[in-house]
Amino acid sequence: MSDDWASYCLQENQSATTPSQALNGPVTNENKINGVTPTEPVSSLTRLKKAAINSRIKELESRLAKERDVIPGMITTGTVTLVYAPSGAGKTVWILGNLFQSIRNNLIRGSDVIYFNEDDGAKGVLQGEAG
To answer: Where are the domains of the chain?
Structure first.
């Protein structure tokens, strides 16, 4: 799955005629940035309005039509999901088991999944490395 947000930003930035029109563009008026002198500071509100979906309903409908289940009834493509439970409750086994099953059932491709295990702090990482 391609990064739709990055593609959108690239497209918007290519159509911008000044640095201040670029999405996620310069926010200051100091010196040159990449050889271009910014014209005016860009407010956070202006940047937020450019990222808003209000004028992009058709695009949103198209993206929703392409949405697929990653774990049926629970997690869909294009989402970030946090699984919270006490230590030792089986979160890792549950999520990885479901991901593997979805891959085997061709609901998703393994290359489309990014999995972060944020259970362990530095101490847990060091203990895992020592063990």
So the answer is: 4-64, 68-130
Q: Which two tokens mark 83? A: 């699984």
62 C-beta neighbours (distance < 10 Å), count: 10
Beta strands (DSSP E) in 1-131 are 69-71, 75-76
Q: Which of 79, 82, 76, 80 is nearest to 108 (CA)?
A: 76
Q: For residue 57, give both structure tokens.
A: 């309903």
Residue 1 CB contacts under 8 Å (≥ 6 apart), including other chains: 77, 78, 112
| Tens of pLDDT, residues 9-67 | 677 766 655 555 555 554 444 555 556 665 667 788 888 888 887 788 888 888 888 88
Is the model's pTM score more than 0.90? no
Task: Name residues whose C-beta falls within 8 Å of residue 40's C-beta, 6 or more positions apart in sequence.
Answer: 20, 29
Are the beta carbons of 12 and 23 closer than 8 angstroms?
yes
Asked whether the beta carbons of 26 and 20 are under 8 A apart, the reply is yes
